[in-house]
Amino acid sequence: MATISIEHASKSFGSTEVLRDISLDVKDGEFLVLLGSSGCGKSTLLNIIAGLDPLADGTIRLDGEVVNDVHPKNRDIAMVFQSYALYPNMTVERNIAFGLEMRKYSKAERKAAVREVASLLQIEHLLSRKPSQLSGGQRQRVAMGRALVRRPKIFLFDEPLSNLDAKLRGEMRTEIKKLHQTLKATMVYVTHDQIEAMTLADRIAIMRDGVIQQIGTPQQIYSTPANMYVAGFVGAPPMNFVEVELARRKDQFGVILPAVLKGQPIEYFLPLQETEQLAGREGSKVVLGLRPEMITHNAFGQSSAPEIECDVELVEPTGADTLCLIRLAGQPAKARVSPLFACEPGESMRFSIDTSRICLFDGKTKQLIG
Amino acid sequence: MSNPRQRKQQMSVLDRLQRYLPQLVVAPPFLLLVFFVYGFIAWTGIISLTDSRMLPSFDIQGFQQYARLFAMDRWDVAFHNLLIFGSLYVLFALMIGCLLAVLLDQHIRAEGALRTIYLYPMAISFIVTGTAWKWILNPSLGIESYMQKLGWESFQFDWIVNRDMAIYVVVIAAVWQASGFVMALFLSALRTVDEDIIRAAHLDGASTTRIYIGIILPSLRPVFLSAFVILAHLSIKSFDLVVALTNGGPGYSSTLPANFMYEMAFRRNQIGLGAASAMMMLATVAAIIVPYLYSELRAKHHG
Amino acid sequence: MAEPKTLPGANGKRYLLGRVFIWSLLLIAAVLYLGPIYVVLSTSLKDLAEIRAGALLDLPHEMNFAPWREAWSQACIGVRCDGLQPYFMNSVIMSVPSVVISTLIGALSGYALSLFHFRGANIIFALMLFGCFIPFQIVILPMAQTLGYLGIANSITGLIVVHTIYGISFTTLFFRNYYVSVPQELVRAATMDGAGFFRIFWHIMLPLALPIIVVSVIWQFTQVWNEFLFGASFTSGGSQPVTVALNNLINSTTSVKQYNVDMAAALIAAAPTLVVYIIAGRFFVRGLTAGAVKG
């Protein structure tokens, strides 16, 4: 058992509030990712869980027990740091064993534990080296080893992969996921990389300015983002935001979508489901959230989804898909189409719009309204 | 899997102590410093307000020692000398040091050896430097007589025994000692200049000289400032060099405030006056150092 | 810096002229810097007759080591006539403990200071920094009295105490500036591993600080060895350090001026720091520049 429960946590550095009344529960064995851009407070939250930063207000419980005043070393938590923080003067073996050494394990116990972890991470051949003689990926493994060797009940990761190149990052991501499945330990992982968050997490908590914006499974976060910040943060290329007007045409509720066709402005009407929240708001402005894959080619006119035709300004092939830059309500927007159907820049093209998955945000509060 | 040797969960007294250990460790040396620097400054300040002569007394008399000080020709000369010495010393050490650094930065093969040669005077004590230059510059057997014997009959270089020129001899020896240090400061800063800037400037058609004058040297402003502050405060502290080189002479024509203070406090039983002059020295140093420290620490704080 | 040679068009006569110009300036400077030490060395090897002949810049006719022997063990300083040797030993006895103690204290307090993040830590830092810049004239009068109270006036012990105290500002700042450049995560990682303040210091920080230990030792040694004001103010007679004794020897007016002995004595007094400089110049420069580098 290893659960983390944080209630009403607040923390300031000087006059800047880094955490504002955060409450968060991590279940036993869960992989929770704290996602946000730099300065959002995610690392501070991690350090508070570790006990490295004292908590100003609120309580933190591990397995139900309040640990606000428990020293990091007595929390049974291990942490992997962004810079790896390997001790430069010690060999890999001693680096890994240092935590055990400090806890007065015998030499034999230490040796056995290091062997086990080293073979798990495939770094047995590096044990006698110094950190300066290792590559970035190897250092990363040693840092993981140092956390693993103590068999803690909770693992904390502070952007552990951000110093690796893209290829290695992908590999290590897979390894961390495997590790989590094998160990079934509670893990809290901080990152600013939304792909890492999506691929690793059981649940993601998106933070901004010391406030958690949304907690949910990767799919929830992706398909029903709580607000425009979350919607824009997750997904690449990001969600298109188009400011539109709610309207009713021939008894059909929907929005008016201005576009450009053959250089001339044109308006389309997109029918939408009239929910309770939206009823009676005709004429008011809302922000339409369209992921690129919701604007796609209409192959052979099969789809019954609403269609628009508009000019394509730019074409970006990515291999699997091609991104077409179009203009909606004066704003550039990206559509994701199959390379087979992509047109040339400057031509116009027909797109079908998947209205069932559309997000609508309040223009002022930026919150999801439908 | 739980740790077999898990300690009890509550924070022990030792753990609580851990949080304050950095403060506890800094406290003794810091208190020493407070006492031996700031306490002693206050102590000297108090002595400067008394009529202490041979032994310090604590009978506060007011600012009469300062009044005496400012009325003394000897102090006047010392302070005037400090202005001459300080400005020339800082100026020439900066110029020569900076020039040598730029020259050494031109991919000189023997750079290491030359650097060692320029910098070694900094490892020598001022007393030794003074001794050497005193010998070289003495008119009867030194460089003057050597030149005359070589056939340059009219060669004259008797500054060291000339009332009006003795302080400039101190400048020469001091610049000789410190310019290598300035060179080292600038050279290490030049090595951090971004090479791409120079490449870009070359592509823009700038000559090497122009690149240095127009781009690189202006970017070294913080180094100029640091070097200036260090040299300026060294000039105020200068004491041993004058002792060994001219011993303040001829007469007291080449004394500096530091020598004045020592003379009054240890030779003439004018402790109150010595303390007053020490306070003036401190004030001069503080006028340079305090704004510098303030701006440095503030800049860092907001950085 | 861009390599001038690799730039096309930067060849030919102009380039060559530039090189000649640079090299001549550098060599003239080298001669000027080496001049004094050459004169001192050659004078110390000449006999008095040769010196009086006035050939300052000439090489000695023959190597004459008598002045060195005299300077080391026979020259009269004050009332004693056993040369610079006892004072040289005084300086050794004075330097070693002050260097070792102030470096040890600086290593620990610099580490602790580097962990300060609370408000006002900057003020403590600034107060320490200012301690490096004060003119020591401001402390000699109270210090003379304090040494008297402590019963260590006019003693090498007294000088050790003084040098240690005023060295702490420097050593603390050396170490503090070094440790703040060590990634904070290292301390955090070690804390997670269960190491406390002293164990982090001993197992991780101190081994890391080897270069700055060397810098601190060299800096302190140079400072203490070359120091004159404290030595002249707080000691007299047999307990003087070598710089004070050298100055007394040079300025003694009792006997015929023996310039060669004076010069040999100057070189003897300068030898230890010069040797250190030649062996470990790199660290010496770092010590000098450390004060100029931002905290």
From TrEMBL, chain A:
Signal peptide stretch: none
Top-level taxon in the UniProt lineage: Bacteria
GO terms assigned for molecular function: ATP binding
Domain ABC transporter: 4-234
Swiss-Prot/TrEMBL keywords: ATP-binding, Nucleotide-binding, Transport
Keyword Transport: yes
PROSITE patterns in the cross-refs: ABC_TRANSPORTER_1 (PS00211), ABC_TRANSPORTER_2 (PS50893)
SUPFAM superfamilies registered for this protein in UniProt: MOP-like (SSF50331), P-loop containing nucleoside triphosphate hydrolases (SSF52540)
Keyword Cell wall biogenesis/degradation: no
InterPro entries in alphabetical order: AAA+_ATPase, ABC_transporter-like_ATP-bd, ABC_transporter-like_CS, ABC_transpr_MalK-like, ABC_transpr_MalK/UgpC-like, Mo/tungstate-bd_C_term_dom, NA-bd_OB-fold, OB_MalK-like
SMART domains reported for this sequence: AAA
Family statement: Belongs to the ABC transporter superfamily.
Name recorded for this polypeptide: Sugar ABC transporter ATP-binding protein
Automatic annotation (TrEMBL), chain B:
Pfam family, one: BPD_transp_1
CDD domains, per database record: TM_PBP2 (cd06261)
InterPro entries named in the record: ABC_transporter_permease, MetI-like, MetI-like_sf
Ranges where the ABC transmembrane type-1 domain occurs: 79-294
Localization terms from the record: Cell membrane
Record's keyword terms, sorted: Cell membrane, Membrane, Transmembrane, Transmembrane helix, Transport
PANTHER family, A to Z: ABC TRANSPORTER PERMEASE PROTEIN
Family indicated by similarity: Belongs to the binding-protein-dependent transport system permease family.
Protein name as it appears in the record: Sugar ABC transporter permease
Species: Pseudovibrio japonicus
Automatic annotation (TrEMBL), chain C:
Transmembrane segments: 20-41, 92-116, 123-144, 156-179, 200-221, 263-285
Membrane-protein topology: Multi-pass membrane protein
Keyword Cell cycle: no
InterPro entries: MetI-like, MetI-like_sf
Stated name of the protein: Sugar ABC transporter permease
Protein localization: Cell membrane
Domain annotation ABC transmembrane type-1: ranges: 88-280
Family of this protein: Belongs to the binding-protein-dependent transport system permease family.
Source domain of life: Bacteria
Pfam families found in the cross-reference section: BPD_transp_1
Keywords recorded for this protein, A-Z: Membrane, Transmembrane, Transmembrane helix, Transport
Predominant localisation class: membrane
Organism: Pseudovibrio japonicus
